UniProtKB/TrEMBL annotation:
The lineage of its organism: Eukaryota, Metazoa, Spiralia, Gnathifera, Rotifera. This is Secreted protein. Residues 1-17 form the signal peptide. It comes from Adineta steineri. Residues 329-356 form a coiled coil. Keywords: Coiled coil, Signal. It comes from the Eukaryota.
Length: 368
């Protein structure tokens, strides 16, 4: 039977790419550069469909069952439920992939919904600073910042939970590879299966990297909000308190002063939020079109009996993956352009906002 599947490379190497975690976040000047989509973003996005392709082909290629027995009869498997059957283990892998990818799908949907709300909160901040009364600013501005910070922390927490789920999947795949390495019967078929599983494990690691990027970017957003709180908010609250105690006016010049102090960080927060929204939306769109239904169909491959049926399914999988990769590549190009355009629009919107405040300040001065 001819085995058809897509592979970036078949390398028998158990070393996986490292991922970024919360502890890796270093706060320095490089972190706060203008947000851009990572160069390897497309590679990370296609990893999901590639994993599904690998496992589907692995199921189709294995009609004969064999045990994953260890030379050490006392060996205890931590993740494999039935080491006496490779086919049952493949079903276990497929089920865990289905569970993890389905959870990732719903979590990323929540992520895009959450990040989409952040620009609205920033719009509220601008309105407050421009025209709200001091008493309203005192109440609503801290609350709005708290809402943004709570959103970023919740999303980061959800991303960390997903990272743990992918780590569990990786641990299962690695244990299966190790078990196959130690099996009493090692032949070309077993070696081919091992190579496929190694490459599938690497692709899972790439997906994990994407979630780590989201965690890292969310922590950057949290730091930016905390920066506003620590460097501007307290001074603003003190100014309002002093103005109120002296029955004075919190005038246009005061408002523009504090907008100017927050301006760069507000722009960065909105650009970061849009970047995260684009990342989450694109992952969700890829998952909707090329992962969720394909995972659900894996179980249908188990009932294919004849070589012709299996070969036809393999051929179709290969053709589908090639078209999927091309479509994802086009999607990535469009989303990158959208992100760049929106970054520029955000800059222009805030510039116009400040100019409008300056105009109103001048107009108010002329009228006095």
């Amino acid at each position: 039977m001819k085995f058809i599947y897509f592979s970036f490379s078949i390398i028998f190497d158990l070393t996986l790419s490292s991922t970024t975690t919360l502890s890796d976040l270093n706060v320095d000047t490089q972190i706060f550069a203008q947000p851009v989509i990572e160069e390897n973003w497309e590679e990370l996005l296609v990893a999901g469909p590639v994993v599904v392709n690998y496992i589907s082909n692995l199921i189709l290629a294995n009609k004969r069952d064999f045990p994953l027995t260890s030379f050490n009869s006392n060996h205890i498997y931590e993740h494999i439920r039935d080491p006496y059957s490779f086919q049952y283990t493949l079903v276990q892998i497929a089920n865990q992939i289905y569970t993890v990818f389905s959870n990732a799908h719903s979590t990323m949907d929540q992520t895009q919904s959450s990040t989409k709300q952040i620009p609205q909160h920033l719009k509220t901040i601008r309105k407050l600073l421009k025209s709200a009364s001091p008493s309203i600013i005192q109440v609503m501005l801290p609350n709005t910042l708290d809402t943004i910070e709570r959103t970023t922390k919740n999303v980061a927490n959800s991303a960390n939970i997903m990272i743990k789920k992918y780590e569990s999947l990786t641990a299962l795949l690695q244990e299966v590879i190790e078990a196959m390495t130690n099996t009493h019967e090692v032949n070309n078929s077993v070696l081919m299966n091992m190579n496929i599983l190694v490459n599938a494990t690497k692709e899972v690691s790439k997906i994990q990297q994407q979630w780590s990027q989201i965690t890292r970017n969310m922590n950057i957003l949290t730091i930016r909000v905390e920066t506003i709180r620590e460097t501007v908010l307290y001074e603003l609250m003190d100014t309002i308190k002093n103005v109120t105690s002296m029955n004075s006016e919190f005038g246009a010049a005061d408002r523009r002063f504090f907008v100017s102090k927050m301006l760069d960080t507000l722009i960065e927060v909105e650009q970061d939020a849009h970047l995260l929204y684009i990342m989450a939306k694109t992952y969700y769109d890829v998952s909707s079109a090329y992962i969720v239904s394909q995972i659900a169909d894996i179980s249908k491959l188990l009932i294919l009996i004849t070589d012709d049926e299996r070969q036809a399914a393999m051929t179709q999988l290969g053709q589908n993956l090639l078209s999927t990769l091309a479509e994802i590549s086009q999607m990535v190009l469009e989303r990158k352009q959208e992100c760049q355009q929106r970054n520029q629009e955000i800059q222009e919107e805030y510039t116009q906002f400040v100019q409008q405040m300056m105009f109103e300040e001048l107009a108010a001065g002329i009228g006095k």
